[in-house]
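Supplementary notes for students who missed Thursday's class. We covered one full example, reproduced here. Read the sequence, then the structure, then the short commentary at the end.
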Amino acid sequence: MDLSLLKALEREKVLEVLQRDRLLRSTEEDRIRRLKMELQDIRRKGAKSFARQYSERTCARCQRPLGKFWNSGAVCRGCSHRICNKCRVGVSMLDWKCTVCHAYREVKFRSGEWFVEERAKKFPPDAGLFPMLLTCPIHS
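Structure (token representation):
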């Protein structure tokens, strides 16, 4: 950015704004990094270990045995694992997710990744005039 054409006071104000922007971006990156680390921790705690043998009737998150009539577990729509009542988080009145899927969803919402994904679905990078403009020769 060329600031040589600006007066000293204007240049100082622009630099202050740029510095605040850099600080805000750094803070936001740290926040998102912490969220993703928390998600990794939840995934690690909620994953079945390959070193142990589990029966079909155990919760995929806490590995507690599931009953036949009470707390028999239900399949999470996010990951398709059987989950006990304690490892479920209500998403709406009728819907729930397991703790890992819920944490993943929260990270996507809090980090803004959902917006980027939805924008990419609606406006693919190669759609519209932009690629055509890139391939058109520039007339001098």
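Commentary. Residues 8-48+57-122 form a domain with the Herpes Virus-1 fold (CATH 3.30.40.10). The longest strand covers residues 88-90. If anything here is unclear, bring it to office hours.
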